[in-house]
Design a protein that fits this description.
single chain; alpha+beta; 434 Repressor (Amino-terminal Domain); 2 domains; five-stranded antiparallel beta sheet; 7 helices; 5 strands; 21% strand; elongated
Length: 197
């Protein structure tokens, strides 16, 4: 017996069957709630319009929120308590493909009130984003295995810690760039510049 393949399901069908009907929402109500013309929602539901705009807005929003969280945590870490820890692992991860960045891997542990905690967070935000082998090696050289280090830990959640306070250099840029897919998604929803043939 041969396996029968199911026909692909358009996201519009999922929208209506899994969300609109169970929630008792009309296409018109959804359109008004998200400030798009009702015709756009109708075209999505009937498979005549792509959902790229929604996907762009969702992806951009997640990226934006993560960048904002990292920026906030980085600023918060400047007021954290200090203890001494030890580097337990320090190496450069070199990816299998040359197009991927090299990344410093630094693990450390610290003790508070007789309890040992482990972490690998150097600071909040994107890992050293330059991605070059030299930059990753420089970080690893700074945090050699067996070295005692200053650890900044969150007094209200002692599992949260960093070796450097503040956020990664690229976090503010990441926050700004994350707005691009959000704006592109809104433009796509409003103008429909990408349509399904």
């Amino acid at each position: 017996m041969k396996n029968k393949k199911l026909a692909p399901i358009h996201p519009g069908e999922i929208l209506i069957e899994e969300f609109l009907k169970p929630l008792g929402l009309s296409q018109y109500r959804l359109a008004k709630d998200i400030s798009v013309p009702p015709r756009r929602i109708n075209e999505i539901v009937h498979g005549k319009r792509s959902i790229i705009g929604i996907s762009l807005i969702l992806a951009g929003s997640i990226w934006f929120l993560w960048s904002l969280h990292s920026l906030w945590k980085g600023r918060e870490s400047e007021d954290w308590n200090i203890t001494t820890g030890i580097i337990t692992k320090s190496k450069v991860f070199e990816p299998y493909r040359k197009c991927n960045p090299a990344v410093p891997i630094v693990h450390y542990e610290y003790s508070l009130c007789g309890k040992t905690y482990k972490s690998d967070r150097i600071f909040w935000g994107n890992v050293h984003t330059s991605g070059t082998l030299d930059a990753a090696q420089k970080v690893v050289d700074e945090y050699k295995e067996g070295t005692k280090v200053t650890v900044y830990y969150n007094q209200s959640n002692e599992r949260e810690s960093v070796l450097e306070t503040g956020s990664a250099q690229g976090t503010l840029l990441s926050l700004a760039v994350s707005c691009i897919p959000i704006v592109a998604g809104i433009v796509q929803l409003m103008t429909g510049f990408i349509n399904i043939p």
